[in-house]
Design goal:
Length: 172
């Protein structure tokens, strides 16, 4: 029962903060792109060669056994901002702590991009992300047309999956 109450509180906080997301907050997404490129210059190849990408400049995550996450950002098609995106995630299992991070999802082909923006998209449970550090992107590969990079902004958390993330895209 305590875990259910915790989950409700966590999800309420993330839902409340996401209601106040600014539309077209492209400046924050562009700053995040610059930070990712500064951390790992090799990531430039993904920006240059992908059909599109989603930049979640602010993802908050918290858990004590049961957890939740929420974030917002911008979707780009061939380098041009095209939509806002919101992400939610619920986790069950061993997880502890709180964390703030940024995430970029690259779409290899138009079909991969369309699948993300045209439908309510969700990552499979086994989906994992590449934690960005210098040189981390050099060996990263697309899986099912998608590759995900994350970069910690603050906090400490023992759990780092992107599986189960759900996305809602609102086109401009």
């Amino acid at each position: 029962m305590k875990n259910i109450i915790r989950l409700i509180i966590i999800l309420s906080i993330f839902s409340y903060t996401s209601l106040y997301a600014q539309k077209y907050d492209i400046e924050e997404s562009n700053k995040t792109i610059a930070e990712f490129k500064k951390e790992d210059p090799d990531i430039e190849k993904f920006f240059n060669n992908s059909y599109g990408y989603a930049v979640l400049y602010s993802v908050g995550k918290g858990a004590v056994g049961v957890g939740g996450a929420g974030g917002k950002g911008t979707v780009y098609e061939k380098g041009t901002p095209k939509a806002d995106v919101k992400m939610t995630q619920v986790t069950v299992g061993f997880a502890l702590g709180g964390q703030k991070y940024a995430e970029i999802i690259f779409f290899e082909e138009k079909e991969d991009y369309d699948r993300f923006v045209e439908k309510d998209f969700e990552f499979a449970a086994q989906t994992s992300a590449v934690a960005l550090s210098s040189g981390a992107s050099a060996n990263a590969k697309y899986r099912d047309g998608v590759v995900v990079f994350t970069m910690a902004i603050g906090g400490l958390m023992y759990e780092a999956s992107v599986g189960g993330q759900k996305f809602k895209v609102t086109k401009y």
